[in-house]
Records
---
Amino acid sequence: MTNQTSSLTQVPGFSAVGVTCGLKVSGNPDLALVLADRPCAAAAVFTTNSFKAAPVLYDMALMERSARALRGVVINAGNANAVTGEQGLRDAEQMARSVESACNLPIDTVFVMSTGVIGDPMPMDKVERGIRLARDLIETEAGRQGQDAAKAIMTTDLVPKEAFEQTTIAGHTVSLGGMAKGSGMIHPNMATMLSVIVTDAAIEAALLKEALKQAVSRSFHRLTVDGDTSTNDTVLLLASGQAGHPSIEPKSPEFETFVRALTQLCTRLAKAIARDGEGATKLVEIVVRRAVSEGEAESAAKTIATSPLVKTALFGNDPNWGRVLAALGRSGVLLYPARVSLRLGDFQLLHNGEPVAFDAVAAHDWLTEADEVKLVVDLDVGQAEAAVWTCDYSYKYIEINAEYHT
Amino acid sequence: MTNQTSSLTQVPGFSAVGVTCGLKVSGNPDLALVLADRPCAAAAVFTTNSFKAAPVLYDMALMERSARALRGVVINAGNANAVTGEQGLRDAEQMARSVESACNLPIDTVFVMSTGVIGDPMPMDKVERGIRLARDLIETEAGRQGQDAAKAIMTTDLVPKEAFEQTTIAGHTVSLGGMAKGSGMIHPNMATMLSVIVTDAAIEAALLKEALKQAVSRSFHRLTVDGDTSTNDTVLLLASGQAGHPSIEPKSPEFETFVRALTQLCTRLAKAIARDGEGATKLVEIVVRRAVSEGEAESAAKTIATSPLVKTALFGNDPNWGRVLAALGRSGVLLYPARVSLRLGDFQLLHNGEPVAFDAVAAHDWLTEADEVKLVVDLDVGQAEAAVWTCDYSYKYIEINAEYHT
């Protein structure tokens, strides 16, 4: 995928590269640079973790100063620059300054993201070399293709994750392209999840922020792999405005159109992350229907999605509705046991609180083959609905996390 | 352990047995009966899950009617009698009636507990045979020894769990004996955890309830294996009053003494459950110190204790303080990163927010050998403290839960 044109560089006016500077022991690409031809409106969503990594603290301050004129983002994998004290803050700032200087950009125009091991000082000599390599490459054909950018931000990810959407605003084609990384420590409210999304839509920074907030709340925030939220999670959205339509107005139909396309893009990236969850054999979509509110539907779905017993049953290809009910029952949402129904794929497991006789062998066989599974919980107490994405828990999850050492 | 005298029957006036009636495929004991010589004051704590199993619903109503005159409890493993509709409620009641009738006890004097598979109808013919076997055995030497009672309530447990404490009240020796089961679906607010505790203390039902509530809040409710809470969890406490001291008064020093002994007993049972957590290689105690409140300390400790990333790191014998901080940081408790310190066993990992150089090889070696690990988090923002018990996540946890089919 990343040897072809990247989803980012399919958006007119953006270039991107990934280079290898020795931050990963594997020798794989480990530093990505994304640049815009012109100043962009920017919006970002950050981790809610109390321990925010240095680049997150840097970016939060940057967004206060400069959300109307960003030119790019530098991202490294291999080192999270988290719990690195004052030196970490200086290093995050230095990464921005180095890119600005190497690429002849004004100060305060570059965003910084890091992912990897926590607590180690950032090897700045390697990072500096990576920035020089990226600068040299990004003006070439490789930069126009976006080569290796999505690969460079991977940690335990098995595959790079990209998505591209187009929509029409005021008769103009608007493109949105995104890449993301993340496969463990993934949970609502941002997890070791980084995503960069670029668009040529014309929209002011304040409204862009509102659009991103709405899209993220129904995509990345509905993603959970293991319930852990990282110190570094960040989603950045850059909008260059060069699609040529008049700037999107608040509460306009054009705003709705843009949010819809953005939500769709973010959902595709979120599902790609769940599918690539550490050790996952299945992408699991949990839908809670007819809840009293969307918040309650989401909360019930997340409780089921984070239950290790549900996730191990799915790994074992066991249609174990008892575990689903046990998780649902502790979620604290309004429900009446005698009204609850459950469906897994095409198998109705429970109807109005009563077990339904189903072909357990066929269900097991279907689960064994399926790489995408949908569980629908019908509460029959209201009108609201929410979907959450997760994956199963396998031996491989334990292996990855017991053997990925500090 | 259960071939010697049970902890329950070390308390004067109680007998107990476990028998085999075919509810478990393994052929191991699967029905336990505990009887008191005289009517007991009773208190119970039940699961908070919205899906309460039939025996839980039966017992909750029973406690409203008859908390001053209980004579015993019947417990089966192999079938949870949960999500079994109206028939399940009739079966739970029938289990109580059968014991009352077989043992010549008044109606509404027997408590019922079940654990095992959810959603299958209770095979009442087997249960009735088990009750007859237990009745025949309990009047013999086996009943005075408590033989096999703690074994009969096991499901995925590897070992039976019992504890015994004595204290002195008004110059009289007071004994407390307990047994418990549980190794998965274990979480605060009761999990597939059953416990029966008996004592010869003299104390009225209302005050006994207060004592149990206090003890459970600092023991069983601070236990988590996998964050799941079951449909059946129940702790029952029976007090016969035959120790001979005057009835314990509210807010008296005797009440404090009794609560202390009861808390100690419950804590020993809770730790035994964590140690026997499905697939566990270690008992993990997480202590959060100097929090602003005991609630916040408990909440922070539980967030760390339920983090799959922390639990897999402990299985991998990796002193991964980054994962501990990431979990702590998302717990939502008041903290300042620069004040947080962490200690794992004798290894100081973090001091006032800064990583401490420690011998990582020695820490790894110690973790590899240890079957009990203590992690201390010092928040330095207040005076409150709480401890939580859990275990690590191993390949075996996945195996047990992926292969224990419905």
---
Amino acid sequence: MKKILIFLLLLPVFNTFAQNRIEKWRVFELTLKGTSKGNPFTEIQVSAEFTNGNQQKIIQGFYDGNGIYKIRFMPQETGTWNWITSSNSKPLNNKKGSFECIAPTGNNHGPVVVKDTFYFVYSDGKPHYSFGTTCYAWVHQGDSMADLTLKTLGNGYFNKIRFCIFPKDYDWNKNEPLIYPFEGNPLKDWDYTRFNPAYFQNIEKRIAQLDSLGIEADLIVFHPYDRWGFQNMDPQTDERYIRYIIARFSAFKNVWWSMANEFDFMSAKKMEDWDKFIRLFAENDPYNHLRGIHNGAVWYDHTNPLITHASIQSEETYRAKELRMKYKKPVVFDECRYEGNIPWSWGNLTPQEMVNKFWRGVTNGGFVGHGETYVTENPVKMPHESNDNLWWSKGGILRGQSPERILFLKNIIESSPGYLKPADLFEWWMPFSAVSYKDEYYLAYYNLDQPRSQILKLPEKSRYTIEIIDAWNMTITPVEGEFSGRSLVVLPQKPFTALRITKIKR
Amino acid sequence: MKKILIFLLLLPVFNTFAQNRIEKWRVFELTLKGTSKGNPFTEIQVSAEFTNGNQQKIIQGFYDGNGIYKIRFMPQETGTWNWITSSNSKPLNNKKGSFECIAPTGNNHGPVVVKDTFYFVYSDGKPHYSFGTTCYAWVHQGDSMADLTLKTLGNGYFNKIRFCIFPKDYDWNKNEPLIYPFEGNPLKDWDYTRFNPAYFQNIEKRIAQLDSLGIEADLIVFHPYDRWGFQNMDPQTDERYIRYIIARFSAFKNVWWSMANEFDFMSAKKMEDWDKFIRLFAENDPYNHLRGIHNGAVWYDHTNPLITHASIQSEETYRAKELRMKYKKPVVFDECRYEGNIPWSWGNLTPQEMVNKFWRGVTNGGFVGHGETYVTENPVKMPHESNDNLWWSKGGILRGQSPERILFLKNIIESSPGYLKPADLFEWWMPFSAVSYKDEYYLAYYNLDQPRSQILKLPEKSRYTIEIIDAWNMTITPVEGEFSGRSLVVLPQKPFTALRITKIKR
């Protein structure tokens, strides 16, 4: 608030405002004062060229209302960046300046990118193991609910959250959003040529808050749960909207683009439309943020080279191993049904089964996303009559028992010595799924089965320690002894058993 | 024992022996004294023509050792049956007689046949809902183990049991059988042209004992778990063996023919061999007993019209609904993994998951088979070193918790008003599988999910009672009130929930 006040005071004097010094991968924001006449969204173009040695980027700006234009830039190199603006409007043209880009500090690891075909990595080299959640409409529930959601996310269960840019209309989410993305009134006089900057400012505030918590913002560009017309906009509006959100959001390092939720449930869009949207992002996002597309009943062909990772809705998370090979990309089960108690088939998993789906996905070389749908209203209501707060839709608090166990798994994975891949060492008849890092580390999971023993075929030239993990009770118990070659291990004979096998370094 | 003594005493006097009077569907056995010279198995043919009004059957006999020939016949009509033998050996030729076939009594319901495409029925019209189990080698473990197995089966959990005609060589089943199906010594001098009658007498004793318990004997004709050579016999031997077991066993009303267990794991056999075996049974079994073939990794094409039902190995029992439509036959998941604790992937289901697979199969219009693989030896041994008694292999006692729950389900299904088919009434988004009988009765199952409520779309013109079933705790609790049309039902919010919905008859 204070910053905005200073900013407003300065504006009459300087019509250009920007930082002098920012960290690599942070948002450099150039604010320019221009005209508010006519329709600045459609009539005014403004961009800036940023140069640093032989590095050069042309970045599109956007109109933010009240005669304010902004150009946001995420520097990916340290050193001095010079900039110069270009516009068809004189007050915005030929402005110059420079800033110093310094090394990142603290938890600034830069944007997440794909590494070694199947994995994610932050730009500074730190591995990113995706453990996501879903709160489709959390940014449209006002500040107090958003604050509560952020507080919950602060517990560190998840490092990615999927949510919709447009408001959502669905069971348990019939409330009207506080503000709308376009000027005008719902279903009366939308002016699709004029965005409502406040709507997008709210979203970017949330993106920045997530970033401060180390959480990736997986932005859902289109979705079918809509009563306002946003799923049926014309192609020109769709494209203008995409270019606008790229200009506004792409400088935030934690942004991922999800073309749609359940793209195939949007009857007004054809497969060519989705291909076109993907290409629009690929060609116009200066930072090449991760791009996915989430399916309903029909799967997108994730072999499209402009898709960076396979974003899958399927409860069969164990298929990660097969889908890796099919798509040759990271496989993220962004939706595998939700922990909850609602009457819809996708929202009544036990916490046990949610945890199981995480372990199965991860020990088959994939990534899995969480969601939660607990209704608590009394008396029980029909879904369309209920305005209960379900995490999956509105955020707020978590009621389930899976997040704590997901965090337990996340901690195990984050402490592994390297990226884990499906383990060749283990044979098909072995009753678990397993991943390994070279011959140094194995993680095997027994699903909900209850074997009493395991015959392992460990490498003969090394010795290993074995720990038995109880994935539900979150215990890790060392097995006495050292193991090598063909080894018989006695197991606790109950569901949620996993093994962590670590090579002993001499 | 007494009967056999009398029989032996009579033989020197009469060289033909048979009953005068038997129930429909029981075994009429004609015993003839002939030569034991040469090789009666290959050199002597004997058959009998049975006639009763315009009914006529030619039935092949078989050599039972010690100069004894038998012709077994299962009459399918009451009244007087006349018979006359035919043979290339004079003492067996042109023998005549008759017997009276009387109405069945007690639990004699006749052979099971297919009804209305997807179901089984006893020949007297009583529905047969298949609830099977598997004890591959129980008939090869000697009398005391077999008696124990029969005692366990007497608890009524199951009405079908799958087992192998040949002995079995596999982990936890390395013991030598007491006797062999052929003359000679293992791997030295088998004489494949001479059967060992005692071997087959033992099996038919078990078939008869099962029948007295009301249990179908699903006989596995070939299997790959073999160290004696029976999986690699030449085509002539295979065919002679098939004709021999048809002659010996087919008059037992409770016989089903399973061409193989895991047919595709028998590398010496080609698909044409299986087609040929199926045709051999179809053309030579006078009673057209049920014929199936059980898969390993490769599924047989169960659309073959000579296959009576799809015998499936798959843990995905919920696919019954889809497979019914694919094969247009009853779908029996004869193997969906086993309740147990062994280190092989197919033998370590929790009892909960075994029960779940039964409910999912049944509420998708299929039938499911049980199996149990609990190792109890201490200390824990490598599977190939263990000679533990596992139900799945040797029979004996059941250690699991699923059989009692399977019986609970069996009782529910057997008390339904008619054959249940996948319910059209319920829509895809409803979180359960459901079957119904007309609009009179619905059975819906929620898998391991935990919905808190259900919106049902019941027929509006009738009123229904609803009961909540806990499939694990085996309780049935009526919901207060009567229901009609769109109805909200509050559920207990835990796994193993099912609903039984019954039309109120005014």
